Every structure is written in C-alpha cells, then in structure tokens.
Amino acid sequence: MNNLAVFATIFFNLILVNNYVLVQFLGICPFLGVSKKVDSSTGMGLAVIFVMVIATAVTFPLQIFLLDAYDLGYMQTVVFILVIAVLVQLIEITLKKYVPALYTALGVYLPLITTNCCVLGVTILAVQDYSDIVAEQGFGLAYAEALICAAGAGVGFLVAMLLFCGVRQRVESSNPPESFKGLPITLVSAAITSMSFMGFGGLVENIINALV
Amino acid sequence: MSEKQSLWKIFTAGIIRENPVLRLVLGCCSALAVTTTVSGALGMGLSMTFVLVCSNIVISALRKAIPDKVHLPCYIVIIATFVTVVQMVLEAYAQDLYDSLGVFLALIVVNCIILGRAEMFACKHTVVESAVDGVGMGLGYIITMLLMSSVREIIGNGSWMGITIIPESVDRMGIMNQAPGGFFVFGCLMALCVFIEKKTNHPIERKTCGEVMLDEIDAAKSEGGDQA
After folding, report:
1. Which residues pair with B103 in a beta bridge?
2. Nearest-CA neighbor of A151 among A13, A5, A4?
3. For chain B, first and last CA: distance in Å?
4. Which residues make beta-bridge pairs with B163?
5. B73 contacts on A by Cβ (under 8 Å)
6. CB contact residues (below 8 A), chain A span 89-108, against chain B
7. CA gap B183, B118 in Å, rounded
8. Which of A157, A167, A159, A156 is closest to A193 using CA atoms?
9. Which residues are within 8 A (CB) of B142 and not within 5 positions of it... i.e. 6 or more apart?
C-alpha cells in the first residue's frame, strides 16, 4: 500500500471501526452529558479535534526526542498531562488575542477539555502505536501517521457525538420503564449505537484495498 | 457538610450513599473499559484506590499551601506522580495486568473520581478524613467494578476470575465482552440502582460530569450573550 492508502486506512478506521468513544470508551463524560444539544456537541467536537491534533503534534516529538532519547519513558504520564494543560491554556490565550472569531466559537470548550481522557488517551496511544515506525521508516512518516491518527480520533469523536445527539432526541420523547428514565436508557441506547459501529469491522481495509 | 462528621459515616458514604460510579456517575470511562474480566476490574479498582487515598492525603495536607489560582495543575501533578508509581509497580510485578489495563492505567490521572474527590472533599477536610474518604470511595468503586465485571465475564466468557462456570457446551454471548455489552450492563445496573432507590424512597438526581460541562457551556454562552 502506498502512504496515502495507509493514511486513509488509519483515519477512517478510527472514525468507523475503532471509534474512540463508542468502541474504546475514551471521553465518555462529555459524550453522555454534552450530547444533549446539537450546537454544544458540534462545538465540543471541533474543539476536541483541534486540541487532539495540536497535543499530539507536541507530545509525539517530545516522546521520541526527549523521553525515549534520554530513557525517561516512565515520566510519560506526568509530562503529557502537564504539556496538555499548558497547551490548552496557550491555545486559549493565543486564540483570544489573534483569532477572536475562533475563540468565540471554541473558547468555552477549551478549559473543559484539559482533563478529558480522550485527549490524554490519543497522545499516549499515538506514541504506543507509531513510535516503532520511527526506527523502521523514519520520523517524518511516523509523525504524519500519528497526526492522522489524532485527527481521525477527533473526527470520530465528533461523529459519535452528533449521531448520538440524534438518537438521544428520539429516546427522550419515548416512554421507557420508570427505572430506566434518564441516564440508564441513555446508556442502553449508547450500547445499540455502539453495536451498529461494530458492523463496520474490516470494512475500511477492504474498501481501501479495493480502491488502490 | 458539618464539621464533626464521624469517620465511619465518611467511610460508608463512598460505598453506598455516594457510590462514585452508580450514584455520582464519576469515572465511567474506566468502569466501562476494563470490566471485561473480573481480575482486570479488581486490579484497576485497587490501583485506583491506592491513587485516590494517596492523592487525597497529600492534597488535604497541602490544602493551605496550594494557591487557589493554580490548584488544578498542582492536583494533576500530585495525582500523576502516584499514577506513575502504580504504573512502575505493576509493570515490574504484574506484567499481565499492566498489559490488559493498557492506556486506562495512565488515564487514572484524568479520572473524574480522583479529581472530583480532590475538589469536593480533600481540599476542605483534614488528612485523616480525606484518607478515610479515599478508602470508602475506592471500596465503592471496587464493588461496582466487581459487580459489572462479574456480569460481563460470566455471560460473555462463561467464567469468573478465569474459572469456568458455565459448561463449554453452552454458547457464549461474546458481545458482553465488547463495547456494547459495557454500555448495556452499566445502563441496566444503574436502572437497578434507581429501582432500589425508588423502593427505599431515596431518589437522587444523577448528574454526570458531562452535564456539569453542559451547564458551564450554557452559562458561559448566556454570559457572552449578555455582553454582546
């Protein structure tokens, strides 16, 4: 497969097959809470994509050139969470000063994302999955794949939020048994949404292989 | 909360009255992800309890020293330190568990149970009270995790703690071990919890951290609207 096909496979796999929210259980909190409203879900999803890509762009080289190079791998958790916290603050300040339009759209969501497990999750998983490629195929390609992975994970989050938003509006107008009202029925409908995503297993590779 | 809350009351609060997963709806990510096997759930529960107790103790001991403005980064560093300790211990002595918990071990750092308890409890109470709260909350978490993972492992894999219970001739419901099963079992357990609350006349309003987020978003938006 050429590089483009690899990139496309990673990207669509993370949206459809290994969706961060519905299949890997990362970022359940905003998924269950914020998906009540379409506009909030969109904003949250966009902010997550934005932060995930930037966070991975910073943490991936940090891991390769600082932590791995000096045998400091055990500091990963501490370093990554601090970098993310600082980064989110920096993004917020920069946007406020230079891109006010983007700030008004995403500013509200940024502080909420700092302690979101999907952001820390994607940075750690990207390092786990793609740091081996650095030795085999060079840093550039591994870095590009890690970034694609972050973007795919972010888009997957947005897709899951928006889809579930629709499901939720249907669920809210239904009449479940008394004990299931509210959160329990939301969780059960998340189970069904997640089940529908399982149907995509193997689909992405096959389509891309057929196209290339 | 009154000043002279008995330690016993704080301890039992975490287990039933303020059960972190089923009643406060905190830390759902790990509760959903690592409950495919009972042993994994137990390992996660114990790691979580260790981090919770240690970070509660340190945060409550430093509660007067930590400036209000930077309290969140301080808490995160304290918590991350203990998570790293757990990671190193597990990697050295329980490689299998370390591999099966995977990224969720590191994600204890951003688990809302720990940050939530630091914000809600440890920063206002003494060291002893916070330690007891940590143990109680940890036990409540472990019990819920064990309950969920027992259901999932028995139905999905026919075994409990790796011991086969259901004979091989009976088909397994593999979906219980996968993502949908997690959501489903969690939803049903919560419904059961609501049912018991209704029977015993102690209904509560559940508020996920996501809904708190939504409230914050709405508040910020209406604030912005007022200024404009």
Report:
1. none
2. A13
3. 39
4. B160
5. 82, 85
6. 104, 107-108
7. 27
8. A167
9. B42, B45, B46, B48, B49
Q: What is the DSSP string of A128-193?
A: HHHHHHHHHH-HHHHHHHHHHHHHHHHHHHHHHHHHHHHHHHHHHTS---GGGTTHHHHHHHHHHH
Does the pTM exceed 0.90? no
Asked whether the beta carbons of B107 and A120 are under 8 A apart, the reply is yes
Strand partners, B159: B164
- The alpha carbon of A42 is separated from its chain's Cα centroid by a whole number of angstroms, namely 14
Q: Nearest by CB to A33, which of B110, B181, B209?
A: B209
Do the bridges between strand B163-164 and strand B159-160 make them parallel or antiparallel, or are there none, so unpaired?
Answer: antiparallel
Q: At what angle do helices A183-198 and A139-172 cross, to 10 degrees?
A: 130
- Look at the block and give the residue holding tokens 């086969």: B164
Task: Judge contact between B24 and B125, C-beta under 8 A.
Answer: no
Q: Partners of B160 in the beta sheet?
A: B163
DSSP per-residue letters across B114-173:
HHHHIIIIITTS-HHHHHHHHHHHHHHHHHHHHHHHHHHHHHHHSEETTEE-S-TTSPP-
Q: Are B177 and B152 in contact (CB under 8 A)?
A: yes
Q: Tens digits of per-residue pLDDT, A140-188?
A: 888 888 999 999 999 999 999 999 998 988 888 888 888 888 888 888 8
Give Cα separations from B176 to B1, B3, B179 (angstroms). Answer: 40, 45, 8
Query: Cα separation of A197 and B203, whole Å?
Result: 34
Residue A33 and residue B214: Cβ atoms within 8 Å?
A: yes
Structure tokens at B148: 């969920």
Write down the domain spans for chain A.
Answer: 24-197
In chain A, the largest separation of any two C-alpha atoms, in whole Å, equals 59
Residue type for B29, please?
A: C
- Evaluate whether A168 touches A36 at the Cβ level (below 8 Å): yes
pLDDT tens, residue by residue, A92-102: 888 888 888 88
Minimal CA–CA distance to B150: which of B176, B124, B170?
B176
Question: Residue B66: phi, psi to the nearest 5?
Answer: -80, 120
Query: What is the count of residue pairs from A and B with beta carbons less than 8 Å apart?
Result: 166
